[in-house]
Amino acid sequence: MTPSQKKYSNYKKLVDDQLALLIRKKEPASLYEPAQYVLDAGGKRIRPLLVMLACEAVGGTAKQALNAAVAIEVLHNFTLVHDDIMDNAAARRGRPTVHTKWDSNVAILTGDALVAVAYRVLLKTKTPAIAHVADLFTEGVIEVCEGQAYDKVFEFRRDVSLDEYMVMIAKKTGKLVSVSSEIGAVIGNGSAKDIRTLRQYGELIGRAFQIQDDLLDVVADEKTFGKPIGGDIVEGKKTYLLLKALECAAGKDRQMLLSVIKNSGTSADNVGRVREIYERTGALAVAKVTIERDIAKATSLLKKLPATPARAMLYWLSDMLLNRHF
Amino acid sequence: MTPSQKKYSNYKKLVDDQLALLIRKKEPASLYEPAQYVLDAGGKRIRPLLVMLACEAVGGTAKQALNAAVAIEVLHNFTLVHDDIMDNAAARRGRPTVHTKWDSNVAILTGDALVAVAYRVLLKTKTPAIAHVADLFTEGVIEVCEGQAYDKVFEFRRDVSLDEYMVMIAKKTGKLVSVSSEIGAVIGNGSAKDIRTLRQYGELIGRAFQIQDDLLDVVADEKTFGKPIGGDIVEGKKTYLLLKALECAAGKDRQMLLSVIKNSGTSADNVGRVREIYERTGALAVAKVTIERDIAKATSLLKKLPATPARAMLYWLSDMLLNRHF
Predict the structure, then answer these.
(1) What is the mean pLDDT of residues A244-256?
(2) Predicted model pTM
């Protein structure tokens, strides 16, 4: 383990320990058992890490931002629980989803309670800027809902453009990442300029993270990835790759991609063919370049911040996200 | 219209006007159309009225508390949207429910967005006690979720006691009413004593309101009530009346009530018979006395507050709730 990995693991433990203690009540069990189940599921805890690092990067401490960090992670988990219902997803992180293990009603209510639990821990943050912090958090919730609404509508549309997709992921995934770094900077009492820098850093790595997700579905090593390659293609998901390839593809390639969209997916046998189209049209290359460019921009923004161990960890974080295989 | 009714109508208009303007964005339409549809549905707006009156009763102004009042109403509407999914309810206030007019996914997401919209308007409240206000609001959300969780579990249990029912409705319905008066008092900068008085007032009228709801299902005039009498009996809902009657009924009466519970309802033909059991066991009389006692206690609490026009309106409100037929 490198010193940075060790540090990351320490931050992660801080968050995991809080999450384990967060749900104090046992009753009603139909609410708090699934809530605890969700919070116990693990995860990379990237968002809370960002909250704490951003706070430190502007002169605050990680502990100061811990409640907000936990709140963001709980909020993220709320979105997973409700999204899984809407997406009919049977499993997440190798375990049955809440609506599968219990039922949809339980999952709806568990998600609702998690939102409130998130606000409860957020509001424990000791800062004169608590109203500002709560405002940012709330705008995060709203945009995540907007992003998910677009995502669901896009499933039934055949003419989604790459631009529309970028707006959607900026809301659905990007916003909560940028809110994380922004809230951390506010709690750390950063200057308006530092707060803006860290929000922009979050926007960039959030976007890169999502495109990377789309890319990994096609190029990852199946063993490290933990799920079959090409799942997005089989499901007909309108990913960065599919929409980018569609901008450039012609003839039979174009017909193939359109058929994936029209039939809301394709057989696993066609994954290789679609992947070839992604290569041929340059979609794969463009995705890689876009991710690298976003990460480079994000990294370059960090130069505006004072050189601190937290900033070094933010460099490490963008690098880690760029090179992740999972 | 009496002067009090006129005043009530003015307060209601304040809230309705804000609700009409609350959703400014149009896109994504799949999120904001149903959200607007919900907020346009009308309603008695009792909770926001309470927020404003409580604020005035401790020396504040209604306008000061308007954002919080609107927030509570939006939060209430969120609970209706999600509860309607869980209860498979096809109609509310004479219109199709969101999940019926659109679908469950839209309804889940609309409810989620309404929670965030509620926090957004709440956080606009100008008060140094904003963190306290947001805390109370958040505890409200959590208890409403707990109450709904109990309610859903109770549907499948045959041995729910009246005491358990009282805990459930205190959370599911009572809490948001008491949070309304409590938040109003905090925003109006009331003393700790005044805040407690107004919270207790809210708890009492919230409980009376729910028992009244259960009572009206059996004794209301069908025309004024707007829905068929005995609906709760037909659906086998474990109401105050059913659980109270079960405490006292014996022989065939007891068997009849148990069969309603066992079969999760009964035919409309049996409504008269069950109603007779409610009378014979004294359940009806006890319900009426309980409501009157709660309202009397609530009214008596108000004596602790200075004599103001707002206090007069709170007297009027408890009286109106006691004598309502809808």
Answers:
(1) 96
(2) 0.96
Inspect the interface and report whether the beta carbons of B123 and A134 lie closer than 8 Å: yes
* Cβ neighbours of A104 in B, within 8 Å: 85, 104
The alpha carbon torsion through B181, B182, B184, B190 (nearest 10 deg) reads 120
Residue of chain A whose Cα is closest to the Cα of B87: A105
Distance CA(A212)–CA(A219), nearest Å, equals: 10
Contact A145 B113 (CB under 8 A): yes
Nearest chain B alpha carbon to A104: B86
Nearest CA-CA distance, residue A9 and chain B, Å: 31
Query: Using CB atoms, which residue from A30, A112, A148 is nearest to B152?
Result: A30
> How does pLDDT run across B18-66, given as a tens digit for each residue?
999 999 998 999 999 999 999 999 999 999 999 999 999 999 999 999 9
Residues of chain B with pLDDT under 50: none
Q: Which residues pair with B92 in a beta bridge?
A: B95
What whole-number distance in Å separates Cα of residue A172 and Cα of residue B28?
A: 12
Instruction: Say yes or no to pLDDT of A222 above 80.
Output: no
State the pLDDT at residue A326. Answer: 56
The confidence score (pLDDT) of residue A325 equals 64
Write out chain A residues lying below 8 Å of B149, CB-based. 28, 30-31, 109, 113
Helix axes B251-262, B240-248, angle to 10 degrees: 140
- Interatomic CA distance for residues B182 and B167, integer angstroms: 19
Residues of A in contact with B150 (CB under 8 A): 28
Per-residue model confidence as pLDDT tens digits over A272-281: 999 999 999 9
User: Is B115's CB within 8 Å of A141's CB?
Assistant: yes
CB–CB contact B113 A150 (8 Å): no
State whether residue A92 is helix, strand or coil.
strand
In one letter, which amino acid is A45?
R
Size of interface A-B (CB pairs under 8 A): 115
Instruction: Say if B145 is an interface residue toward chain A (CB within 8 Å).
Output: yes
Query: Chain A residues with CB inside 8 Å of B112's CB?
Result: 82, 111-112, 115, 141, 145
Residue that the structure tokens 């033909």 belong to:
B269
The residue of chain B nearest to residue A117, with distances taken between CA atoms, is: B142
pLDDT at A244 over 70: yes
Cα–Cα dist B84/B107, whole Å:
9
Dist. CA A280–CA A249, nearest whole Å: 8
**CA A299 – CA A319 distance, rounded (Å):** 9
**pLDDT for A323:** 82
Q: Which residues pair with B96 in a beta bridge?
A: B91
Q: How far apart are CA B171 and CA B323, in angstroms?
A: 24
CA distances B224 to A62, A252, B217, B220, B325, Å, are: 59, 66, 12, 8, 7
Structural tokens at position A20: 């384990």
CB contact under 8 A, B108 and A86: yes
The answer for A277, left when phi > 0, alpha when psi is -120 to 50, beta otherwise, is: alpha
Chain A within 8 Å of B104 (Cβ-Cβ)? yes
What secondary structure does DSSP assign to B165-198, as a single string? HHHHHIIIIIHHHHHHHHHHHHHTT--HHHHHHH
**Chain B residue numbers touching A135 (CB-CB < 8 A):** 120, 123
The full set of domains in chain B, from first to last, is: 7-46+56-126 (1.10.600.10), 127-316 (1.10.600.10)
